[in-house]
Amino acid sequence: MKYAWIVTSALVFRVMVASGAATTQSSIESVGERVPSEDSVLADFHSLGLIEGQTDIFRCASPVHDLGKPAPTTRQSDEEIDIAKARMQRLYGLGIRTIISLEDAQKPNEGGDPPNPAKAAALKRRVSLERMEAQETGIRFVPMPMANSGPGSLQDMSDVQVLDLLNRVTDEVFKDAKTGGVVFHCAAGHDRTGIVAAFIRIKYEHWPVDQAIDEMRRYGHNWVKFSNNGGTSSWHEDHLRAIASLLAQPTARSAAQQQEVGQQ
Question: Which of 79, 87, 141, 219 fits a disulfide with 63 by CB distance 3.0 to 4.6 angstroms?
Fold first, then answer.
């Protein structure tokens, strides 16, 4: 298959990483192992391997995360445009035909931080730049905003609301994967990207939730920063544990019903 070499290397690397002990850092800024990117240009680019017969599903950091910095004008510089174009062409060369962005341009200041107009403007410039260059390159850009913290975010959503959100995102992922490669990303590719990848592992590959969370942490999830319990676990991980139980309930009911029929 076209992506066989990527999948094979990703799977081998995943096994190598899994065999090592996970390192829990005390510093909020350096939590997680942050497995090296499988691409020399795109940050935190990883294949999810073979899932549901698909080998063309990937995760990464925003391809333009280092661009769109605060500037006196809302127009991107020629240099930024050229760099963004080159990265989109690289994605296209890898077979990517759809980008699903989890970045929320309406919520640049998460976690109750004071309003930061410069940060808000930079995020909007970055998202606009990515959308423009993706579309010019022939890549479909799908915004599916998700926030880590603050009002209306993963922090205060119910487990059922998060399950609905993750279902909508992953339904889009697998729909798009039927017509070409698809990559999903947030800003750094660690937290929002991490919960989506973990959900795919749990729902579609039937991984135990703790195994999915272990991978999430290895790939850079900052569970200490997004924690209500002193850094034991993040609310992302707490949602995943509850969601794993919710997903198991229909199966449990079906098994009970079959048992009842057998006893009649």
Answer: 87
